[in-house]
Each structure stands twice: as structure tokens, then as C-alpha cells.
């Protein structure tokens, strides 16, 4: 198999069913109060127009309260082509019934609006004498929405669900990461051995037992891949993120560290699928701040220097012959894509960019005459483009709402297969008709949606596939082996089969307006069998901050929901995927407008009646840990409990202790976060450690001693400063962990302690 991934396989997500904003019990309060459920109209007795009905229903029956694009997507589920074409006309009873039935997800074999109205009457959505052509007023609609709420929650007795143990959520989930051998006759996967993730190999269409080919007892295998008939895998030491590449023989009898260099981290450049025994890697062996390119012989471990980094190269790309022909140089602010015809020539500028622009090459075409890339040069959104050797650009795919997040190129066919983007969930745009037909056939065969299905791996002839199915209530992926020549589908594994999806919580897409008018997207997970009213809420800001939350299974979110908490995840400004302008809106806004976006999300949940304002908690890791500390520092009355997991307390010391291989990104950090000298007052103002006198919220801190990103000192400082004031802070430090706890026993201990802490303060 020969294919180039820009983005790892993403966890797919399932569209939630009938999210419902909290409605007041009183009809007139529902119709007229200012929670955005049904707006006032000039005359409550006037006939409801179709457009007004759609607007009111969107606000009342979904959590999309700000994004016009996402509201339009919801309408597409409610209204089919040819229906409700005249938006100015009064809407009739049968059409209202049709929308309500679809919004509830209880549509069966109804054909006409009369059928939908009869269904609505049977379910108690409308009164028994309601007519197909009857129009409604705002007051009438308010009553209908109250009825809708009763139907939506008729099986909800507000008692929650049976408590699931922390261990069941946090222990190793089983077999995952399935990959086919190049000849398609064997399959590898990761599974637990001695409480650590290790790699196993199994012969396909054979009853023989799988063979374990790695024997790691100290640390999980971080990843693995096939090279010829060998398994290569990567692992660090105690969370230090100095990843080495190891080889394992086919029978698992011999393991070898192929890059046995202390304090060196290795990254794969190319698997060189058509070159026997050799791969291309990057290492910061000569200079800890930059990565050179080496050819590595996986049999002998011999490395050959291929490309020297002058100090400013941040990425490299090999052509289809394995020659390094593209390099991207950057000063941390502006970057230039460099090109050369042969490895004997010097690199020359190919594409120049301005601050904020990015061009990320993916792959050369088969003839090495074209280059595929993701680019936002001279535009707001990242698009998939094709470049000739004179840098002339052809746009292959763009999306007006969001960035293109990744694309897959297949060199054996010399085709781009598809690109993907994420709005509320993952979506695909296909360029190869046969691959699209196969994808759609698998959707039908597995009875899943587009966003639940992933092609994990395939044999280059495209006859054997590893297929994954995932959603918001299934841990990771259900794996299948598919043979397209026989149309046979074989189930390989269920992750965490002990977790029943029916006992888990739905993740709802949301949107709201920030105080300065930005549209903020996110996700709201509501506890199963609990009414979404006055719930304890945990806001869970993501790390980065230049990443984003996605719709999919999240074990810690599901754990919190299982314990009765609503969980709010916010893609605040600076989150990736929403375009350059949105990303840059977070520059030098740590603790300021970024924090306001998080606060505004909490207030939105309170205003909707979902969250109890006296029982709000905040929990986050990495930047999310910083946002946790900033939340209890700068909005101390908002939160009743806080958990900081490997979070930043002092931006000055964060910038002083970044890993050496992040040095080329230093200027970018100064631009996005702040300069320690030029922005000294700003960084002092937003670093929580300097404002501990404002903190009064109970705090739990967790930290890995070997963390190379957020140094242990970040947690030590805030804990010591608070304890000096006589405030007791719960502090969990793990000596064998880095940026987050990866070892199973440490994960279980941390989440048990976190749940106990939150329950003590929020229940």
C-alpha cells in the first residue's frame, strides 16, 4: 500500500437526536421570555409565517443558536426538497406536524401531511381537532413546543443511569489500530499485555493464534506501521516525548532500537514503500532544535544523512522516488516553501507566504510533476490545491464554512481519493468515483452514516480493507475486515465491549454568540435519563489552544455524564478549523477574549436553564489547564470546583522551558501568546500565578514529572503559591508520566480522584 495521510484517521461522530433547549413549564413564559425560544411578535394572535416557524423551531428544538450554516443543516433534515418553498406564507398544521415528527426522529412510513398530522396527534404533539390547513399563532406554537418537550422526555424519569466504574471507562479498551501487511495476508493491531499497549500480528483467513511482536512493560507503544515484512513501532521513555523507532521481526523474537540516541526524538518522513529495507526519518541528533533527514536501514540500523537543516526548516517532503524535493522554512511568523529538481541542487523559493498563511505539501504526483497541498495563502479557509512545478495553483476542493482538515492521496492510482472537513461532524468530499461507490456501499452494508465510517487501511490493489465504525457513544472504533472481491465483511474487534452504548450520553452540537459577536461552536453532552434542567455542569476547554474539540467518543466526557454532569466543550477563538481570521482572533488573548468565550458558553448554558449556576465546575488539560486556572482567577465567582491537568500557571516560565525542538516555533508563540519582554505587562496580567489572591475555588492539580511541554514547575508554582496563603490544594504528581497520564494505573487513579473531588464540591 502506498498512500499519504496529512491527518490521522479522525474519530467519526453521530448526529444527535432531538436536542431540546430547556423550556419553561408555563406556556406564556415559554412564548414570551427572553431566552430565545420563541421571540415576541407584534401580535401573538397573528398567523405564523413559515420562516418564523422555522426560526423559532430551530431555537427551541436544537442547540444551534448562532450559526446560520449549522441551522440550515438542521433544516435540511426537517424539510425535504419541494416542501415549504414559500417562506412568507402562513405555515399549516400538517406541515408543522411533519417537521415535529422528523425533529423527534420518529418518522416511519408517513407519506402525506395528513399522515404526519395523524402521527403528531397520536403522540400528543397537537390537539385532537388540529386541522391539516390550520394556521397557528405564537401562543399556539408555544403550547406545541411544550407538548414536544413532554414527548421528547416521556421515557425520562430524571433518575439517571446505573453508575459505570472509572475502571471501565479508563482501562485499556482492547484491540485497536488494525493495519494490513503490504501483501494483505497479515494484519497487525495493538492490544494490552502486562497493562501496556503492545503490537500483535495475525494471519488472515487462518485460525492460528495471534503473535505478540513487542514486549513493552514500562510504556505503551505509541504507534506502529508495516515496512515490508517487519513491524516498526515508536515509543518514548516515561513521557519525555523523545520517541525512538524500534523494529520487531515478523515472529516477535527480536526487537531493536533503531535510533538509540539519548535525548533525540524521531519522526517518520516516508515509508518508501517501493524501496526495500529503508525508510526516511527526521531526527534532532546533530542539533536539538532542528530536524535533519536521514535514510534508515531497518535491518542494520545504519543511518545515512540525506538533508541538512540549516536551522529554519520545519518540514520536508519526498517525491515518489523517495528524494527530498520540498522543504518548508519558517521564522515562526512567515514561511517559504522551497523546491529543488534533484537532491544534488540547492533549494530555491517556491511559494512565499505572509504572516498567518500556511502551505502544507501532502504528496507529489506519480510523475513528480505536480504537488498536492493544503493552503490558506491569500484566503481565509484552508483549501486542497494542486501545484505545478512553477507554483501555479488549481483549487481542488474548498468549503466556505471551515478549513479542509486533511486529504488522502493514493500513489498506486495517482489519485486524490478524498478530502475531509469538520463542521458539526466529519464530512468527506470524494474525487475518485470507484472509491466513493465502495464507501457508500459500506455505509449501506453496515447501516451507518457517512460520519460513522472510516477506511482505516487498504491493500494497494483496493481489494482488502480495514474498516472502522465509530460514533459519540462507541469507544473508538468497531473494526471490520472487508474483501471487495467477495463482498464479505468480518468483524475484527469491539473496543470496550463492556460499555453499552444505550447507557451512554448523546453529544449535541451547539453554537452561541460571544459578547463581541463571534459565532462560537462546541458540543454539549447531557447525562442519560436526566432532564436538562439545573444540572451540575463541567466546562472542559480543550488543549492547544490551536486545536479543536470534535464530535466523537470521549471517555472522560462520558464518565462525567455518567455521574450526572452536563459537559460543555467550546471551540473558542484560536481553535483550529474555522479559518485564519478566527484562529488569529485569539492572538495574545490568553485569559482575555479566549476566556470570555468560555465564560460566555457557561452563561449560555445557564441562560438556557440547563446548568445550575451554583454548581459549575471547570476541568482542562494543557492549555485547558491554563483556562481552568484563568477561569478561577479572573471569574472567581463562576466556578465551584476546578481541576487543572498539566496546565500552565506562568506564561513566562512556559516560554522559558519549551522543548528545544520547538525553537523554530518560538516567534510564532511570541506572536500568538506574547513576548516576555515586549508584552511583559500583558503576560503578568494573564498568568494566574501572579494573582493567586483572587483564587477561592477548590482546586485539584495533576502533573507528570517528565512533561517536556508544560514543565512540572508550572504546577509546582501554583500549588506552592496557594499553599503559602493557607489554601489546601489537592496535588497528584506522577514521576513516570509526561504531558498527561498514559499508563493505565495512573489514568484510573487520576480519574477516580477527579470524580471524588468534583462530587464533593458540586453535589
From TrEMBL:
Gene3D superfamilies: alpha/beta hydrolase (3.40.50.1820), TolB, C-terminal domain (2.120.10.30). One of its GO terms (biological process) is proteolysis. Keywords: Aminopeptidase, Hydrolase, Protease, Signal. The keyword Aminoacyl-tRNA synthetase does not apply. Residues 551-763 form the Peptidase S9 prolyl oligopeptidase catalytic domain. GO terms for molecular function: aminopeptidase activity; serine-type endopeptidase activity. Residues 1-24 form the signal peptide. This is Dipeptidyl aminopeptidase/acylaminoacyl peptidase.
